[in-house]
Automatic annotation (TrEMBL):
Organism of derivation: Candidatus Dojkabacteria bacterium
Family according to the record: Belongs to the RNase Y family.
InterPro entries: HD/PDEase_dom, HD_domain, HDIG_dom, KH_dom, KH_dom_type_1, KH_dom_type_1_sf, Ribonuclease_Y, RNase_Y_N
PANTHER family registered for this protein in UniProt: RIBONUCLEASE Y
Protein name: Ribonuclease Y
Native organism taxonomy: Bacteria, Candidatus Dojkabacteria
């Protein structure tokens, strides 16, 4: 209220000052005019009358301006007062809301605090009650808490063993019931293998060259080693001449280079002229001849399988199959066998036969490039090749998923994987070295021997069966059923093997008494 009165007084004082200023300015102008000769001639009464009239007019104008300023000040004051009233109402409303919210929060806090206290008391009551119940149970059962837990644990373990053994036996019964379906599937697989069998001749790239005499080694080396250095530089193959008598060994990771070197060395030794010039000329001719042979081989494979429209780059990779082996299995023979297997399997299940044949043909393209592309498994490389040159995503998935690390997206992709497994597992298809065989047999036996209940384990039938002898006084019949299943499961998850491994459990309990 005081601020409003102060503002009103300020406006009135401002209006009075403004009127005084106007009177002063008009008075000054009047005095200047009175000095004018025209006014000197006036009579005193006339001058006084005119001045009085002029002054009255000026006073009236000044009063009018003061009244306008006063009215404007009052209007502004009224507007300001209205704004202050509105603001005060908003503040009052906000204050009421805050008070109500604070009251609600306080009530909720009090409620939570009371609930928390009640919960703590309930926990204490439950704890005390559990202690009382445990004490009563111990008194009734004459057992401590630890003894009761151990007894319960043993009973539960026995129940679980019986349940698991029963479940395994029921599963075996169901498996026997479905034997007709398995027999039918086995007939289909055997029939497809019979129809797709190919001639497996032991073809391998030459790594050892027989020579007629030790004198020829001097020709191969040449004066100051010029011939052997030229040969190794042009072929990319290392020549080993001191390893065995009447033999020269060729060492290189690339089977194509090794083949070029073997053919060139045989031709040079047969010709008898061995010097840098003839070496360069011979190797150049062998490379051109081998390139033509690779192309012819690729075209023949494509023609034999019915896919003559393959890109030239893929044809060249197919031709290189002739010089690539996996576990002693030539890629041409393996791929052709897979094409036949895939066709029979696809026809039996109603899948796309031509698609499966094409995927089987191309599934191992990456194997001829594994020494050139590092960091990728061969089936991933095969998928990349199909995407690049054939541009078929479904075909690429069928090619790259045959080893199980990539999810197959079609039934045809699954059939490619099945055909690859059948071809690799066929007896005699692949050879294994002695060291790997011994390691695999030992690992099978070690898996079974890790259990205390097992007395001895023997891998027989070339690792196709593991016979496990259990300790009869330690392992019960239910233990034998469960542990046999565990051993088979661990072999399946940790070992790599073609076909299947049978686990046979033996538990013999003998008691003999002598009657006298």
């Amino acid at each position: 209220m005081e601020s409003i009165l102060l503002l009103l007084l300020t406006v009135i004082a401002t209006g009075g000052i403004g009127g005084s200023v106007l009177l002063f300015q008009n008075n000054k102008k009047l005095q200047e005019k009175l000095k004018d000769p025209k006014f000197i001639a006036m009579s005193e009464d006339e001058a006084i009358g005119k001045a009085s009239l002029k002054a009255q007019n000026l006073i009236l104008e000044a009063e009018k301006e003061v009244a306008d300023l006063r009215q404007k000040a009052l209007d502004d004051n009224k507007a300001k007062r209205q704004e202050l009233d509105d603001e005060q109402r908003r503040i009052d409303t906000r204050e009421k809301e805050l008070i109500a919210r604070s009251k609600s929060v306080d009530e909720r806090f009090d409620s939570l605090e009371s609930k928390e206290k009640a919960l703590e008391q309930a926990k204490k009551d439950v704890k005390n009650l559990r202690a009382q119940v445990a004490t009563k149970l111990e008194n009734v059962a004459n057992l401590t808490k630890e003894q009761a837990q151990e007894q319960l644990k043993q009973e539960v373990e026995e129940d679980i063993k019986s349940y698991i053994a029963k479940s395994i036996k029921e599963a075996e019964k169901k498996k026997k019931i479905s034997s007709q379906a398995e027999d039918k599937a086995r007939e289909i697989i055997i029939d497809s293998m019979q129809k797709s069998a190919t001639d497996y001749v032991a073809e391998s790239t030459a790594t050892t060259i027989e020579i007629e005499s030790e004198d020829l080694k001097g020709k191969i080396i040449g004066k100051e080693g010029r011939n052997i250095r030229t040969f190794e530089r042009l072929t990319g193959v290392d020549i080993i001449v001191d390893e065995a008598p009447n033999q020269v060994s060729l060492s290189c990771f690339d089977p194509i280079r090794r083949e070029v070197a073997a053919l060139a060395l045989k031709k040079l030794l047969k010709d008898g002229r061995v010097h840098p010039g003839s070496i360069e000329e011979t190797i150049k001719g062998i490379k051109n001849e081998l390139a033509r042979e690779i192309k012819r081989t690729g075209e023949k494979i494509a023609y034999d399988t019915g896919f003559n429209d393959l890109p030239p780059e893929v044809i060249k990779l197919l031709g290189r199959f002739k010089y690539r082996f996996s576990y002693g299995q030539n890629l041409i023979k393996h791929s052709l066998e897979m094409v036949n297997l895939g066709a029979v399997l696809a026809a039996e299940v109603g899948a796309d036969v031509n698609f499966v044949k094409k995927a089987c043909l191309l599934h191992d393209l990456g194997k001829v490039l594994t020494h050139e592309i590092e960091g990728k498994p061969h089936h991933h490389i095969s998928g990349d090749i199909v995407r690049k040159y054939i541009k078929d995503e479904k075909l690429a998935n069928a090619v790259e998923s045959h080893h199980g690390d990539i999810e197959p997206q079609s039934i045809e992709a699954i059939l490619v994987s099945v055909a690859d497994a059948i071809s690799g597992a066929r007896p005699g298809a692949r050879k294994d070295n002695y060291e790997d065989y011994v390691k695999r047999i030992k690992s099978l036996e070690d898996i079974a021997k890790q259990y205390n209940e097992v007395k001895e384990a023997y891998a027989i039938h070339a690792g196709r069966e593991v016979r496990v002898i259990f300790k009869p006084k330690v392992a019960s019949d239910d233990d034998v059923v469960i542990l046999t299943r565990k051993i088979a499961k661990e072999i399946e998850e940790t070992q790599s093997y073609p076909g299947s491994v049978k686990v046979t459990a033996i538990r013999e309990f003998r008691i003999s008494e002598e009657a006298k």
